[in-house]
Amino acid sequence: MKRLTLPLLAVLVGAAGSNPGASIVEHGASGGVIPCRVCHGMQLQGNAGMGAPPLAGLPESTTLPALAAIAAGKQGKNFAMRDVARALTPAQRQAVAAYIAGLRRGPGS
Where do the domains of the chain lie? Predict the structure, then answer.
């Protein structure tokens, strides 16, 4: 079992480690950036109970301005999301937006 578990773990960790956007979505980042999955769901299909919309498949042209507006306090009322958006650097925002854009949208999205 150990022989199978360690290579699988290495693949899973490596997948997020090679893509900064995936890493932020899955693990968060320094400066108080919690993983996007915590609120938006494991596959970023949204969490209606928390009021977290689906993100998977959104184009970068939607995500980047939304993050900027949230960080500026011009969009949304969720203080945790505002703090996350403010803590992301421009490069991190770009990486997250690119990663999200490449995800498959869920049914009904």
Answer: 2-101
